[in-house]
Amino acid sequence: MSHHSIKITSGVKPVERQDRTQHIKSKTAKDSFSAVLSSAQGQMEEVQRSSEKIFYNIMTPEMSIAAPIETSPDAKFKNILSIVMKHEGTSYVTKDGGRESSKMGILQSTAREYGYKGDIRNISKDEAEGIYKKIWDKSGAADLPYPLSVVHFDTYVNSPAAARKMLKQSGGDIDTYLGKREKRFIRLATMRPHRYGRYLKGWIDRVNNLRSVVAEYAKINEASKIETASAKSVDTRA
């Protein structure tokens, strides 16, 4: 008895199947990006509706509020760096933003610009902190009141040119600053979805985390004011 193999085909040519597969993948990617974009825009609208303005006039130091707990310049930097590092992470990335390798949020070219000579994958935590300190000094964040300082430094690490522009345009209004940063991320992801679309959710989460930092500080500051007023009231009665 002879045995014959039977090849079952779908009736669709290989090229047609490939085209259909690519079309499905492209449609899935677009749908995923659209969902993230829609969610980001919805979050922006919600923030605009519900958030209270927290204004810090960077031109009048007497209105500024010192960073909580830590008051020395070095302590202030390290406190803010810890927030930035939660966003940047510590991993080695081969193609950060589709460009070049990075580690702990520092691109190879940036490390070289600030004096690091080795391969970025070998950079130590102390060396990375040293580079961030130079970026901190250059950014001007040290001269800003908290929490505007953390918002500006986190933005500066991401894009120095954009940070300088947003600081000037916002006039020290943190809500306006973060709103501009969020819109920039959405604009980048919309204009170049194949390059930036996959980063949009993480970018929006980063902005929202900064909003949480700002809101938490406002809450602590308000509680401190109430406690101080209460203490003064007790002293007056005494």
Description:
The chain is mainly α. It has one domain. The protein is 66% helix and 5% strand. α5 packs parallel to α7 and α7 runs antiparallel to α9. The chain is globular, with a radius of gyration of 25 Å. The N and C termini lie far apart (112 Å).
Short structural description:
With 238 residues, the chain is mainly alpha-helical. It has helices spanning 14-50, 73-88, 108-113, 125-139, 148-158, 160-170, 174-191, 193-196, 200-237; strands at 92-96, 100-103, 106-107. Helix 1 (14-50) runs antiparallel to helix 7 (174-191) and helix 5 runs antiparallel to helix 6 (160-170).
Structural class: mainly alpha
Rg over alpha carbons: 25 Å
The helix tally amounts to 9
Q: Choose one word for the global shape.
A: globular
Could you tell me how far the N terminus lies from the C terminus, measured between alpha carbons in angstroms?
112 Å
Number of domains: 1
- Approximate helicity band: 55-70%
Largest sheet: 3 strands, antiparallel
Which spans of ≥5 residues are poorly predicted at pLDDT below 50?
Answer: 1-15, 50-67
The percent range for strand residues is under 5%
Number of strands: 3
The strand order across the widest sheet is 1-2-3
List the defining traits of the structure above.
238 residues, mainly alpha, 3-stranded antiparallel sheet, 3 strands
Give the secondary structure arrangement, pairings included.
Blueprint: H1 14-50, H2 73-88, E1 92-96, E2 100-103, E3 106-107, H3 108-113, H4 125-139, H5 148-158, H6 160-170, H7 174-191, H8 193-196, H9 200-237
Antiparallel strand pairs: 1-2, 2-3
